[in-house]
Structure prediction request, 906 residues.
Amino acid sequence: MTQIFFDIMAATAIVGGLGVVLVRNTVYAALFLILSLMGVAGFYVLLSVEFLALVQVLIYGGAVTVLLLFALMLTRTRDMFEGATDGPQKPIAAVVGLALLAAFITMIYKTQWPRDVNELTTVPFNDIGTALFNRWAVPFEIASGVLLVALVGAVVIAMQEEGEP
Amino acid sequence: MQGIAQDIPLEHFVVVSSILFSIGVYGVLARRNAVLILMSMELMLNAVSINMVAFAVYTAPSLFVGIIFAIFVITIAAAEVGLALAIVLRVFRNRGTANVDEVDTLRW
Amino acid sequence: MADAWVLPALPVAGFVLLLLFSPWLPRKGDWLAILLMGTSFGLVFPIANDVADSIGRGGFHGVEVSREWFNVQGYIEIRMGTFVDQITLVMLFVVTFVALLVMIYSTGYMHGERRYGWFYAIVSLFVASMLTLVLADNLLLLYFSWELVGLCSMLLIGYYNDKQSAAEAAKKAFVTTRVGDVGLLIGIIILFTQTHTFNIQEILRTAEEGGIRREWLTAAAVCMLSGAVGKSAQFPLHVWLPDAMEGPTPVSALIHAATMVVAGVYLVARMLPLFEVVRGMPELITALGLTTTMLAAFIGLAQRDIKRVVAYSTLNSLGLMFVALGSGAVGAAMLYLFTHAFFKALLFLACGSVIHATEEQEVDKLGGLWSKMPITAPMFIIGALAMAGLIPLSGYWAKDEILVGVRHGGLSDVVIITVLISLPITALYMIRVVLLTFFGPAKDAHVHEHAHESEPPMSWPLVLLGALAVVSGFVVFEGVGKALGFHSGWLGFIYNPAEGPETYRVNWGLAVSSVALVVAGLVAGLWVWGGEAEPSKRAGAFSPLVYRLFLNRFYVDEAYQLAIDYVVLAAGRVIAVFDRAIVNDTGVNGTGETTWFLGWIGKYQQTGRIPNYALAIVVGVVVIAAVAFGYRA
Prediction:
C-alpha cells in the first residue's frame, strides 16, 4: 500500500521535473513545476512530516510559482513561442546530467544502507516549533534577516526610476 | 504510517532525490530563458530537501535536523527566487531579452 | 732593508698628488715627481749598504719583511711584504735611476704637451708598481703590480690620444700581454693550490724539495713562463713591442727598454729554482730566447724608422737575457739587464733627441746629422757600439758573461753557435742605423737645415748614460766591486758562495771569437752603408725576397690577424648565434611570447555566456565527486 503511494508520488515528481525541463511553452513549464512540487509534498506526507508538506504547498505552490508566472509575464518577448527555449548546450547538458545521475546511482549502489531501522516515530509538531525557537533560534533570526534583505533588495533592483526604461 | 520503514528502504528516497537533482541540472544547463533556469534550480533544491528529510526521519528522528534544514531551504529558496526575478526583470528592461545566452557582452 | 717599502710609496704619493693637484701646481708639478723620484733613488744606497754588509758577513739569502693581510681561519694566510736580495737590489737601482733620468729628460722633450702633468703622474705610478713588483715577496702582490705595470704601459703608449695608431698600439700592447698575464695568473693559482701559500721563497723551497707533483709543477711553470713571455716580448708574444713605439720616446726609454720589459726576465730569474726543477724548461726558455733574438736581429736589419730599429734591438737583447737564464746563468742575465738599461735608455733618449730636433723618424729623411748634433751623435754611437758588444764598452762584458754562462750551461752546442752568429748581425744593423742617420748625405735638405742640438735637460742625461754605457761593464772586476763597497765583483755579488762562480775568469776562446765577430760585423756594415751611393738600395738588392721578409717582420702580425679573423671572430660569431637564438629568442623573448600565447588561448574560456559557466561548475563538481568517491571506494 505504502509502496504504491510512494510510486505515485515519485512518478508525479519526476514527470513534473521532466516537464519543467523539456516542454517548449514556458507557462506549461511553470505548471509542470507545480506538479513536481506537489509530488514532493506528497513525499513529506509519506515521511510523516506533515508540517513540511504544508509549508511546501503554501510557499512553493502559492508564492514561488505565482512569482515565477508573473516574471514570465513581464519578460515576454515577441518570439516567446517561436524561439527555442533550449540553448545550444542541450547535448552536453544531457550528457552531464546523465553522468551525474550515473555517479549518484553508483554511489547509492555501493553504500551499505542500515538494515535495522525498526519503527519510524512521528515527529511532534510542537517539538519542531520549540526547537526552532530554542536550538535553531539564531538561524531562524538570520533567515528572517535574509528575507527582509531579499525583499528590500528586490524592490530596489526592480524599481523604475524617473525616465528609466 | 508506522511501518513504512520496512516497506520502503531509505535508498529509494535517495534515488528519487538523485533523479530529480539530475533533471534539475539538465534544466539549468540546457534552458535559455532565465526564469526557466530558476525553475530548474527549484527542482534541485527540492531534491536536496527530500534527501535531508528522508535521512532525518529514517536515521535520527529525535534530532530532526533534516527537517529544520528543509524548512530553512524553503525559506531561502523563496527569498532567492524573489531576488533573482527582480534581477531578471531589470536585465529584461535593459537588454530587451530574458535569454541568458544573449547577455554576453562580458566576453572576449 | 726593513723599510724598503718606502721606495714605492714615494712615487705612489707622487701619482696621487699629481693626479689631484697638477693643474694648479707651478710647471704642472713635474718638479714634485722628480723630487720624490730622486728621494727614492737616494734611498737605494742605504739599502745597497745593508746588502753589502750582509753579504760580507756571509750566507746572505735575502731579507723578508711582511705583515699579515688576511687570514681565513688559519687555512689561508696571506701576507704582504718585501723581499730584498741581490737581484732586487739591482732592479731597484736600475728602475729608480733610469726613471729619474727619464723624468728630467722629459722636462725638455714633453715641454708644452697637452697632458704634461698627467704624464708625470702615470710615470710615477708606473715606477711605484715596478718597484712593488721587484720588492714583492709573494706572488699575489707581484701579480697586482704586474697588472698595474701593464696598465701604465698601455696608458702611456696611448699618450697621444688623438692618433689612431697610438690607440691601436696601446690596445695591442695590453691585449698581447694579457694573453701572457692569464697564463701567469693560472700558474700562480696552480702553485697556490699545491703549496697553500703565495710566498715566493716558500714556494721555491717546496719545489726544490720535490713537494709539488710533477704534472702540476710543469703546468705552473709553463703558465708562469707565458706571463714572462708576454711582458718581455719574447716570441710569439713579441708583436706589441715595436708598435709600442707610438708612445713618447721617454716612455719608450723607461718602460720598453730599461724596466717593464725586463719584468719578465726578473720573474724568470726569481723563480729560476722552480723552473730548473721542471724537465725541459731550461730548453724551452733558451729556445724562446734564441728565436726572439735572431728574429729581432733580422727584422731590425730592414726597418726604416730609427725608433723601430732600437725597439727590435731591445727584443734582441731580451732574447739574449732569456738565453742566459735558460742556461741558469743568472749573474750573466742580471749583468746584461744592468748594462742594457743604460745603453738602451741612452739609445732611446738619443733617438728622442733626434726626433725632437728634426721632427722626423724615418732614415729616408735623415742623414748627415753628425755635424748638426755634436752631443747626441757621439752618444748615440757609443750606445750603438755598446749594444753591438764592442770591447771595452759595457755591452761586451755582459755578452761575454752570457757566452761563458751558456758554455757552462750544458745545453746543446746549437745555442752557443746561434748566440755567436747573432753578434755580427747585431753589429750590422746598429752600424746601419748610425750611418744612415748621422752620416752620408742629408736626404732631406729642409730637415737637415732645421736640425739642432737639444737643450740641456735632454742632452746631459745622454752624456751621463753614455758614460755609464762605457764603464758599467767593469763591475765584473773584483777591484771595481771592492771600490764600490761590495766585497767582490759582480759575480761574487750575485751568487752566494757555492751557487756559482765567484770571480771573473776569462774564456779566451769565446772572448776572442766574440770580438772578432763583432768587428767583422761592423766592418761589413761600414762597407755596405758607408760611402756615397744609395746604401739601402744596395742592401735591398742582395735579395729582394729576403728583404721583404725582414721588412714585413716575418709576417707574424699578419698571421695573428688571420688567426683572429678566422678563428677568434668565427668562434665569436658562432657564440653570437647561440646567444641570439637561445638566450635571447628562446629564453627572454620566448618566455614573454609563451605567456602571451597562453593568455591568447585562455581568453576563449571567457565566453560571457551563463550556460557555459554553469556547465563548467557542474562538470567540476561531477569530476570532484567521482574522484572523491572513487578514492573512498
